Write the structure tokens for this entry.
Amino acid sequence: MMYVKKYWFWFAIMAVLISWTANTWYFKSKQIDAPIFLTHYIEESIGNPTFLTLYYITNKSDHKDLQVVKLDDLLLYPQQHDGFIFMDSDQLHRQNVHQEFTHHYIRKTTFEINKDLLSPHHLKDGIDVKNIEAIFSERAPMTVPIGHIRLLPPVAVSNVLQSVTSSSSSAGDNRIVYSANEPLSIEKVDLPFDQKVKGLYEIELMKNQIFTNGDQNKTANQELATEWPIELETRDRFISTIQINMESKSMVSLQFMIKGETRNEKSFQIPFHVAEEPFLTQSEVYSFINNATEVR
């Protein structure tokens, strides 16, 4: 009887050790050696200021801060934490958590680009990178693929078209309606990345004429914009509908540029933006990690 009790005692000890070893191995197998950046597709003109937000996967136990990123030869530093100076370190780390998973966080850090501090080269030619250098505290600098970031030269914005309504949804639908403040011709709309990134977005442009009948305005049927230029009279509307492909699981921030000329031959250009944050499931995080070169 004593032998049986001793046998079960050691069996229980071995079971606990095996379970602990298995759990430890499983935990370690899910850890990554270094932060892994998600794919970003960002294109916009440099404003004053411009904000650039980057998303990356870290282990939950990793409290190293993203301190600097280098785009080409431009060094960027994180935006201040909303002016809160009495946060403890844990609060600061949790402030930039975008999503939480079993073993990992997706964190985000926002960087401010001040036009007044840029070089003449950047203001003239912009910045176009597919890799960045990231510096985390207590880590060697990392050169990582980022997707594609294009910061374009600053643009003087006209007000001949006025945004009257805009809407978006969690499914990636974005709609902006413009009203013409004077007669004009829209000659073209420049598309971000020239749609070279297959399946990133779809765009539909429409014209909506407004006819005046006495003191009342009547709206004609919307017409798909298929031929250029698009002629608009005062109060006519120009509608953009953009569908972002949410299955790409990428950070998407896109600038579209409306270009044209008024009836009195004054050129104009008007940028408009759509942006969607990435949201991943647990299985997608594991898949992303398994496909990344930084994983153990």
Remarks:
- Residues 84 and 92 are 9 Å apart (CA to CA).
- The longest helix spans residues 2-29.
- The radius of gyration is 26 Å.
